[in-house]
Amino acid sequence: SECRWDRQFLLNCSFTRISTIPEDTSKIAVTADLSYNNIKTFVCSDGRNEEWMLKHLNLSNNMISELTLNTCTNLPILETLNLNGNAIHTLTLDMPTPVHGSKKYNIVDRLLPALKVLSVERNNLNTVPRGLGLLQSLQTVHLSSNAIKQIDPKDFQNCSQLKHIDLRNNKITKIHPDAFRDLNKLQVVVDLRENALTIPLPQILVSLNFLQLEVYLSKNAW
Predict the structure, then answer these.
(1) Kind of pairing, strands 31-33 and 10-12?
(2) What span, in angstroms and rounded, lies between the C-alpha atoms of 143 and 201?
(3) Under 8 Å CB-to-CB from 13, ≥6 apart: which residues?
């Protein structure tokens, strides 16, 4: 392929006009930059479950509209996933329901176990992706500049390591009072600027730890 590979750490396929992941992609690269291409689909596992040594994967500014992460059992040390600037309207993380009590899908502990940063800015999401709690190491989630309309109580359920939530520039009009209640490690920012909130949020704010947290609420409709 036209990708540039330094034979050690970096695989650079940026601006190469590829539409699929090259078959000769190195599995031992630490960083893979696949940004600014024509990629429409990305499938983590090719069926062989050959593990990649990636820590940083950049798929920003492509043409991805739907993405399923619940097959990503072959990226055991991936720490950052950049999906900014695509056309993603569906991002699936939660596992399929087992049939008749089967344990067929009992691989949740292998779903991106090291992922710390998930960035899905400038896409077409109208809800927070369900299943974020399955990403056991997730610390930062960037969801700004989408079309998210409300925050439900289960959106960040079980996100026990989450420290930073960026929801700026969405269309949020409603936030459930318990939406952030169990996020005990939030200590950086909850960014809700440039949304459509019309009423103050005392119930939500009371549940947060003010001693460590910054909450940004400017440029709303109130």
Answers:
(1) parallel
(2) 20
(3) 1, 2, 3, 4, 22, 25, 32, 33, 34, 37
Nearest 5 degrees, angle CA 24-CA 26-CA 28? 160
Per-residue pLDDT of 118-160, as tens digits, reads 999 999 999 999 899 999 999 999 999 999 999 999 999 999 8
Show the tokens assigned to 127: 């809800």
CA distance 102 to 155: 26
Report pLDDT digits (tens) over 17-63. 999 888 777 788 999 999 999 999 988 776 656 788 999 999 999 99
Which amino acid, residue 208?
A: L
Provide φ and ψ at 101, rounded to 5°: 75, 10
Strands 31-33 and 56-58, sheet pairing: parallel
Q: What angle do CA 73, 77, 81 make, to 5 degrees?
A: 85
Inter-residue contact 119 to 142 (CB < 8 Å): yes
How far apart CA 112 and CA 131 sit, in angstroms, is 12
Q: Where are the beta strands (DSSP E) in 111-193?
A: 117-119, 140-142, 150-151, 164-166, 174-175, 189-191
